[in-house]
Structure formats: C-alpha cells, structure tokens
C-alpha cells in the first residue's frame, strides 16, 4: 500500500518536472553556511535509462588541492535508496551540521577538517531513482535492481564525462559503503567491460574503495554471533551452545531445530537494545531503523528490516537529544526539505519530500546475492582496492569482511599490523594482499566513515597517494 501511495504521488508530480531541462549549477552559497563556499560545488541532473526517463541527481566537489590532476571518485551511498547527503554532509565531504539544538530555522553548517576532497575530486551520486532528489518519469523506469543500478551508474558516468571532458584523464575510482558493497565492485566491472568494448568516453578506472560493505549475506550472518561473543555481548556458555546447536551456521536455520531456535532467541534478547551501527554508542532514536534482523527471522535471507521509521522534517517534537549521534540525521531532513536549500541546489520542482533513506518506497529487486565474484574479476584485471571496516560495527562485522577477503586466496604481502595516526596512536589494523587489495580496520569505528572521520580521512589520503597505511 505504501509503495502504491508513493507511485500515485510520483505520477501526479510528473507534469511539473518533465518540461524542465537538465543543467548543472555552480553553487556558491548554501543556506546554513555563512558566506561563500570556500570550495567548488556543482550540482545537477543526468538522464539515463530507456528513453532517458531516469534523472539522477549529483553533488560534485572539486579537489581543494589540484583538481586538474587529482583522482576523481564517484561516491555511492548504501541503502539501497539512501541519499548521497550521507557522504556529502556526514562521512567524507567538506561540510557537516554543527549539531546545535534545532530552533526552527535552517540547521547551520560548518567546514570539516577531514574532507576527502582535500586530495580528490568527489562526485556524490543519488542512486537509484527515488534516492534523495533523483526521480523517474514513469512507474516502469522507477523499478530497479542491483544490476540495473550498476548499468545506470555506468551510463551516468559516461554522460557526465561527456559534459566534463577536462576530467577524462584523471585517475578514476568508485567508492561507497554499506549496501554499496553489492554495487561498487559491479560498477568497476561494468566500466571495465565498457572500455574493452570501446564505449566512449573511455573512463580511466584505477580501482575502488569500500567501507563496511555488504558482500555476501551468508558471511555476515554467520559472523554476527562470534562478533557478539568477542565483544562481550553474549556469554561463553550461550556462544558455545549456539555453536553446538546450530553447527556454527546461522543463515537459513532449520526451523525444526528447536534447541538452535531457542538459543537464537536468547541471543536476540541479549543484543536487542544495542545500537548495532556502533555498539558502544547509546541506542538513540533514529530517522529510519535498519535494525539488526533476529537471526531466527524468516526474513533473514532477504535482509528485510525489523522496523522502518521515516522522518521528513515535519515534527521537531520527535527529535532525540542533541547529544545523540543520530541527531544530525534529523537535522538533515529539516535542511534538505527547506525550499531555500532546494533552490540553491537546483532541485527540480515537483520532487516530493526528501528522506535520508527511502528504502521501503523504491520498487527494488535484490538480484546480487554475492558480490565476491565481482571482486575476483576486478582483481584479475589488476584494479587496486581499499576495503575498510569500523571494528565496532555489528551490522556488517569486520570479521565477515575479513573472511570473504581471505576466501579469495591471495597471498599476503604485508601481514597484520597496526596503522598509526601521526600522533603515534593506533588508528586500526591492516593487511595487504597480492591482488592489490588492502584491508583496514578503524579502531573504535562504526558502520560508516562518519563515526571516526579523522582516521578514515588519513587512511584514504595515504591509500589514494599510493602509500602504505
């Protein structure tokens, strides 16, 4: 019913959108930020899909160092269906919300010290249609999937490069986090295949970056129990019983195994009040709940959410305390739905309410169950990759990511060691493999780079410069 309601609203908005011409906009001022922007920001729409009936919105931030020669990276937020504002204003962009208590005006912004745009050009894309300010003109075009999204992102890039030929020779990377672990390696492969077929413009693809990536649901589910045990969230006795009764396998558990089901209920009770994106933080209210799925849930294979709450910036009484990490998520809805903000960004008229993650309203087919074959193909073609994990993320445990990387069976070039901040503090641990893949943990980190942005920024800068962590 919710999807039908969304499609009705979507169809009613078409007349006010269709006649507008796509154009990029150089943004010099943003509501919430005092004075002109001290970096170069461009926004716009690019048409893709059958009859170009999908309009994908982007934010493009030029490197603050040497944009003509610095690497260019497209950044894809997960979900699927989450806005690229998650990257631009939370994880690795040049601005963040100040976090002041909301007073009914446009939430204020401030510059960051950790922006990845200090060393790279970053193209933040709202994909698929229905994410952020992106949209589709027809119900059929609105329907999408993992593989369709990969194809459309490749089309987006080749169209974007046609309008930005000055960046064609820059080293190009694909980046993303969370659910984009299913999309990013596929985009790298798609770009590579297109180049081999002679599609133009040729894209100078060099590699990819992934944070806490979903890759294979089986790996992630099977490692959650051991992660909870290693972090002291369940007892030794429960862990040992789970290992015995379930055989150490928690994906698609046989419902007739009563002992296993009972142990899983005890496990779920132990972790039910944990904020799984960073287990050390308070379990505050969020604008949407990805929610860890009970391990004995019938929906575990599809990865369906336990619950989902949307917040579109209408009710300030439902805000969590400003001390909560999630407070900025609510601020983003007030900011992104402000008419002056939309006007400044060049958002097309008729686009409905913005939500940080529009996951439940997008007709989406999950048709990539396992992203590991894409990593295998990309490794064979010699692409570099950086895979990093916040070590206190329970949504996609670092141990599950480490496990599928090991399953690739590449030899280790630089074995497990700490990598350091300039202050001689351990920032995390890392290992490098013969397929040019670097795995790194972020000590104290959560599900995305926003939890430890300074560490992640230093990690990215070293890696993109070709230096060891």
From TrEMBL:
InterPro entries assigned to the protein according to its UniProt record, in alphabetical order: AB_hydrolase_fold, Peptidase_S10
GO molecular function annotation: serine-type carboxypeptidase activity; sinapoyltransferase activity
SUPFAM superfamilies: alpha/beta-Hydrolases (SSF53474)
Single Gene Ontology BP annotation: secondary metabolic process
Signal sequence range: 1-23
Keywords associated with the record: Disulfide bond, Glycoprotein, Secreted, Signal
Entry-linked Pfam families: Peptidase_S10 (PF00450)
Family of the protein in this entry: Belongs to the peptidase S10 family.
Designated name of the protein: Uncharacterized protein
């Amino acid at each position: 019913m919710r999807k039908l309601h969304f499609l009705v609203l979507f169809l009613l908005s078409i007349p006010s959108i269709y006649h507008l011409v796509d154009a990029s906009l150089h943004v010099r001022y943003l509501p919430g930020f005092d004075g002109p922007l001290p970096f170069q920001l461009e926004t716009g729409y690019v048409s893709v899909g059958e009859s170009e009936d999908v309009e994908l919105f982007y934010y493009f931030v030029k490197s603050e160092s040497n944009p003509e020669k610095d690497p260019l990276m497209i950044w894809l937020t997960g979900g699927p269906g989450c806005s690229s504002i998650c990257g631009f204003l939370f994880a690795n962009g040049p601005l963040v919300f100040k976090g002041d208590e909301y007073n009914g005006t446009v939430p204020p912004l401030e510059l960051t010290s950790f922006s990845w745009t200090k060393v790279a050009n970053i193209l933040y894309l709202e994909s698929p249609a229905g994410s952020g300010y992106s949209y589709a003109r027809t119900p059929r075009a609105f329907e999408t999937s993992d593989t369709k999204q990969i194809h459309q992102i490749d089309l987006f890039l080749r169209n974007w490069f046609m309008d930005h030929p000055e960046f064609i020779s820059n080293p190009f990377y694909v980046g993303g986090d969370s659910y984009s672990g299913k999309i990013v390696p596929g985009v790298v492969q798609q770009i590579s295949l297109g180049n081999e077929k002679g599609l133009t413009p040729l894209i100078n693809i060099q590699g990819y970056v992934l944070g806490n990536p979903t890759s294979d649901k089986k790996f992630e589910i099977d490692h959650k129990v051991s992660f909870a045990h290693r972090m002291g969230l369940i007892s030794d006795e429960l862990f040992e019983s789970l290992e015995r009764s379930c055989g150490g396998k928690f994906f698609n558990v046989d419902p007739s195994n009563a002992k296993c089901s009972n142990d899983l209920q005890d496990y779920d009770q132990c972790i039910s009040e944990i904020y799984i994106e960073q287990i050390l933080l308070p379990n505050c209210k969020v604008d949407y709940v990805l929610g860890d799925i009970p391990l004995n849930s019938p929906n575990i294979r599809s990865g369906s959410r336990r619950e989902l709450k949307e917040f579109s910036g209408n009710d300030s009484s439902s805000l969590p305390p400003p001390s909560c990490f999630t407070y900025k998520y609510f601020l983003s809805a007030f900011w992104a739905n402000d008419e002056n903000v939309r006007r400044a960004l060049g958002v097309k008229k008729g686009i409905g309410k913005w939500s940080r993650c529009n996951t439940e309203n997008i007709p989406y087919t999950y048709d990539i169950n396992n992203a590991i074959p894409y990593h295998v193909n990309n490794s064979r073609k010699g692409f570099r990759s950086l895979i990093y994990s916040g070590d206190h993320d329970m949504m996609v445990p670092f141990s599950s990511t480490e496990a599928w990387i090991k399953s690739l069976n590449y030899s280790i070039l630089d074995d497990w060691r700490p990598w350091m901040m300039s202050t001689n503090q351990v920032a995390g641990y890392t290992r490098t493999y013969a397929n040019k893949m670097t795995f790194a943990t972020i000590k104290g980190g959560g599900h995305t780079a926003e939890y430890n942005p300074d560490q992640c920024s230093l990690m990215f800068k070293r890696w993109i410069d070709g230096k060891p962590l």
